[in-house]
Amino acid sequence: MMMMMMMMMMMMMMMMMMMMMMMMIMMMIMMMMMMMMMMMMMRRRRRRTRRRRRRRRRRRRRRRRRRRRRRRRRRRRRRRRRRRRRRRRRRRRRMMMMMMMMMMMMIMITIVIFIFYYYCYY
Known about the structure:
Elements: H1 2-64, H2 67-121
Helix pairs in contact: 1-2
């Protein structure tokens, strides 16, 4: 009877562990998806607002001000844009790396927990 009870307990514990692991993994995936969605939304919003504002300003300036000033400003704007694009790419890569690292860490932690439980049982 005692043996049976022990076995049952073991099984129950194992099942619980498995369920917990599954839940953790699911939560992680959901969090990742949410983060990605948020990032995408933020990027899209920023881009749209900036583009619209720039276009409006350009048109107004062209009408009001002299030819000489126009040329200089165009060049400056182009340089700024290039720099911004590069920075964005770097940020994306860093974010991707960070996400990957987080995933790896979580996976490692879960594996370690599993191993510890097995050692405790056997």
